[in-house]
Design brief:
Structural class: mainly beta
Radius of gyration: 16 Å
Distance between the termini: 31 Å
Number of strands: 9
Largest sheet: 5 strands, antiparallel
Shape: elongated
């Protein structure tokens, strides 16, 4: 007997992502704390199906060894099967150190 996932459930595949089970309006919250080994611009972005969501993108110029909190929240309409994840990029190749404890969070909550 095959089991089926309820339409409103989420899954965590592919790895390091959240896949929504049903279409609707969602609240996405995201954050991370990090520092860099070389001063440069760092961008944290939330993606939907591999495409950056412009309203969920934060870019900052970071100084060496200074921790910075990247945090945000958006409300967005998502289709069933949408895959949500986060990506980090920098203008220069740079070593990144994540904060201690919980170093990155991504939550997706269905509003309707």
């Amino acid at each position: 007997m095959a089991s089926t996932m309820p339409a409103n459930a989420v899954t965590y595949t592919p790895a390091n992502s959240i896949t929504v089970g049903s279409a609707g309006t969602y609240e996405i919250n995201y954050s991370t704390t990090l520092s860099v080994a070389l001063g440069t611009t760092v961008t944290l972005a939330v993606r939907q199906n591999g495409t950056v969501i412009p309203d969920a993108t934060i870019s900052r110029v970071l100084s060496v060894g200074v921790g910075s909190l990247f945090s945000g929240s958006i409300i967005i309409n998502l289709a069933a099967g949408a895959v949500i994840d986060m990506t980090l990029s920098a203008l220069l190749a740079v070593g990144v150190t994540l904060g201690s404890g919980v170093n990155a969070t991504l939550t997706v909550k269905k509003l309707n």
